[in-house]
Amino acid sequence: MSNKEGATLPFIHMKNITTIFYIPKERISKGYVRMDKEESNHLVRVLRFKVNDRFIVTDGEGFKSWALLEKADNNYALSKLIDDDLPGLSPELPIDIDVAVGIIRPSRFENMVEMLVHLGVKKIIPLITTYSEIQNIKRVSSNDYHERLNRIAISGMKSSLRSYLPEVTEPVDIIDFLKKNEYKNIFFGEAEGLPNIGNSHIKDSRLLILIGPEGGFSHREIETICDYKGFPVNLGRTRLRTETAAVTMTVKIMNELRLI
User: Fold this and answer.
1) Interatomic CA distance for residues 250 and 129, integer angstroms
2) What pTM does this model have?
3) How many C-beta atoms lie closer than 10 Å to residue 6's C-beta?
């Protein structure tokens, strides 16, 4: 086996690629990867990697590389970066899809985050809306829960073999969010909306999907979305739960743009 420069590499045992490993850029230095306790435990104890096994790492910002395990320990694993051809990992979408969703019950929001990460979205925004229940807003707004959502996003990135980590933002009021962010393409779920989008409605390489909580958006919120040129989209014959609507809308847009 040879690297890109033609130098011969030692025999390296390689396991099937079912996941990649997330290593923040500050833990990648001078050709070595220093894994934290959580990733080290997953690598060595759970997946049973041993010295001279190799695996793929990413910093969540597009960098990806083979790494050769040199020190196997449940608490601290040290690996050397290898300059060798990578297998085909999941390519990022050619258009940035941000999904903003009215806050719902935390357990359901978590499942939605994981599915949206798998689909390739760029950013996930929890929205505080008129019909978001106050107890759910308090839970999702806590620092501990935000950290939990980030861990779910990391897990989804790794298992879907992406090299970019989607951002999960802090909760934000929907009206404030629309005022502070400029999107030329906004699509929202609406029973009276059109069944198809069409490429003619895509005016930029970045788009926003808006999905309401249980109960949908209020009349004022819909008026504000329309003021910002939001395009209403019908998602089918039946009423969908929030997390189902978010995934359905994302897949629908990806399909119409021929991204899947």
Assistant:
1) 20
2) 0.87
3) 6
pLDDT band of residue 127 (cuts 50, 70, 90) is: very high
Confidence of residue 189 (pLDDT cuts 50, 70, 90): confident
Q: In this predicted model, what pLDDT tens digit does every residue of 17-76 receive, in sequence order?
A: 678 999 999 999 999 999 999 899 989 999 899 999 999 999 999 999 999 999 888 788
Cα 137 from Cα 104, distance rounded (Å): 8
- The whole-angstrom separation of Cα 27 and Cα 12 is 23
Pairing of strands 13-14, 53-58: parallel
- Tokens 């998602």 locate to 235
Helices and strands (DSSP H and E) totals, the chain: 7, 14
- Pairing label, strands 64-71, 78-82: antiparallel
Beta partners for residue 80, in sequence order: 32, 68
Look at the block and give the residue holding tokens 């003619």.
Answer: 200
- Torsion, Cα 239 97 92 256, to 10 degrees, reads 60
Q: Tally Cβ neighbours within 10 Å of residue 213.
A: 24
Which pair of tokens denotes residue 209? 């999907």
Structure tokens at 29: 């230095």
Nearest alpha carbon to residue 28 among 69, 72, 71, 59:
59
**Confidence at 194, pLDDT banded by 50, 70, 90:** confident
Rounded Cα distance between 61 and 178, Å, is 26
